Model the fold of this input.
Amino acid sequence: MKFTKKFFIFLISSIIIYATFLIVSDLTKLSEHIIDFKIEYLPLIISLVSAGWLALYFRWILLLKNLKYSFPHKQNFPIFLSGFALSVTPGKIGELLKSQLLKEKFDLPRKISAPVILVERFYNAIGIVIISLFGILVFDFSGIVILITACLLVLIFLILRYEKLFNILIQKFSKIKFLSKFSNSFLDSYDVIKESTQPRIFIISSTLSSIYWILESIAVYFILRSFGIDLLSIFDVIPTYATSIILGVASLIPGGLGVSESTLIGLLSLQGLTISTAVSLTIFIRLLTLWYSVFIGFIALKISGAFSLNNSN
Done:
């Protein structure tokens, strides 16, 4: 499996951005906060984040079974997790790697798997908007953010449900180099997307997506507690974290890098935390959520045989 220069540039940019956060903050206070981290919270935090992945995996199984496809968990689960390795791409389009793995392992046509992965992104957005409703009670501007995001999701839903609009969108995206090889798969698989957004599947998938975001938000809450921060309740943390994720996704920057972090630092500061404390918390939050999943994703790539498969082709 080969990684482009852009991927490594992104990793280097990540290091630079996190280093910048460290430099502009009070390094002395930052080191004190790190020392204050209560390691006994780590197993709970990791367990909550990982449990959230199970909710997404159940959704993955549901979407495939709805299309009359079922694969052994021993092989299917690593393939599912492998998508996390490239989740730091814009809109997480790097997760389309799963489509190639399913083709290699089970000869599942891309016209089936690619649209399922697209629908996954849609349900992730639905879930984050649902739990963001708590934000209306915490931040005055959250209502505007949620309204704009909800309107976009309604538009996306209409595109997914109406074939003519869907085909127009896919033709536009087919001009993007990375997506061009998947464009025919999307054009030939409108029925798959329509079937994956029918009412029953929509409700169950949206619920599982919400559970994922809630579990990750609870993990964020315990990250705060691990630093001895009890200023925010779980009902404050959920919309704070959700809002930072929404703005990060809306930026279209890979992984929301810089945008999600800056937003989270700002929102934590608005709720009474010092900048140095907010920076410390944000770095740990991103390491134990986003970057932990990327790390596990690369392990899953190895287990699923992605590197050897691509090298042999």
